[in-house]
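Quick one, tokens below. Sequence please?
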């Protein structure tokens, strides 16, 4: 592998969606788990995460080795209204197009807002709102150690994506990490 990783062993996270078997497999292997929650209510994944942790424990892996990460659609702007206004049009276009291929109904603002709500999967809002939601998700899932955002599906400009990355690093991360 080139370039060589700094870490030894190479840090591998196993991405899973929603099948119990995929969560158990990750636990048995003792690999950190990245849960892709791209819709629905995040807390509903807790029983699957519990399966992962139990399978890992039964396979002899330490609790510290059995890390859980969360992957969600997200976007951060200076204010929540700005985040929604900038993110929603591209999101709606992209997921309506994908939905036609997969048999989903067209995106509606009402369903988007439900996903943006307190228990919904989307991490779209101001730094403070997104940080609070990440902390709620972590509590609901029994603790997470990593969060990744899917931002590039919304047709956002390069400048807006760079600003979102800046806000995540400078304002969201310190709130989530208690710094």
């Amino acid at each position: 592998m080139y370039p060589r990783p700094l870490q030894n062993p190479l840090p591998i996270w196993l991405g899973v969606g929603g099948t119990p078997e995929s969560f158990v497999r990750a636990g048995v292997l003792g690999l950190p788990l990245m849960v892709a929650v791209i819709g629905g209510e995040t807390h509903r994944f807790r029983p699957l995460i519990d399966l992962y942790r139990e399978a890992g424990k039964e396979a002899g892996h330490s609790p510290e080795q059995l890390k859980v990460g969360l992957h969600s659609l997200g976007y951060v702007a200076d204010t929540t209204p700005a985040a929604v206004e900038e993110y929603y049009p591209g999101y709606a276009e992209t997921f309506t197009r994908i939905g036609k291929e997969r048999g989903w109904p067209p995106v509606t603002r009402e369903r988007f807002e439900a996903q943006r709500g307190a228990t919904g999967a989307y991490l779209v809002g101001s730094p403070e709102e997104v940080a609070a939601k990440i902390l709620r998700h972590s509590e609901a899932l029994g603790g997470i150690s990593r969060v990744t955002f899917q931002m590039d599906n919304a047709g956002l400009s390069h400048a807006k994506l760079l600003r979102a990355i800046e806000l995540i690093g400078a304002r969201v991360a310190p709130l989530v990490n208690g710094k």
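The first helix runs from residue 20 to 29. The beta strands are 14-16, 33-36, 68-76, 123-125, 146-150.
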